[in-house]
Amino acid sequence: MKFYDKYPQLKQKGFLAQMLSNTVYSTMLLENQQVAMSKVEEIVLSLLKEQELKGGQFFFNQIS
Question: Which of 4, 33, 49, 55 sits CB 3.0–4.6 Å from 28 for a disulfide?
C-alpha cells in the first residue's frame, strides 16, 4: 500500500497546509517561541507553492 493510498487526505492542499501549520505552531509554542499563527500559515503556504513550482505534480486531483 502506498503512502497516499493510506492517507488520501494528504493529497488535499488545504488539509495538508492546515496540518503543517498547526504542527509547526504547536511545536514552537512548546519551545516558548512566540510566532503568530498567521505568519506560520503564510510560510507553510509559500513553501507548498514553491514545491508545486519546482516540478512534478505535488497534489493529485486538486480542485481549486
Answer: 33
- The rounded distance, in Å, linking the Cα atoms of 59 and 2 is 15
Contact in structure between 20 and 44 (CB atoms under 8 Å): yes
Total-model pTM: 0.75
Query: Are the CB atoms for 4 and 11 separated by under 8 Å?
Result: yes
Mean pLDDT, consecutive 10-residue segments, the chain of 64 residues?
Answer: 79 89 95 94 92 71 50
DSSP sequence for 6-57: H-GGGGSHHHHHHHHHHHHHHHHHHTT----HHHHHHHHHHHHHHHHHHSS-
Query: Do residues 19 and 44 lie in contact, with contact meaning Cβ atoms separated by under 8 Å?
Result: no
Written as nine digits, the cell of 57 is 505534480
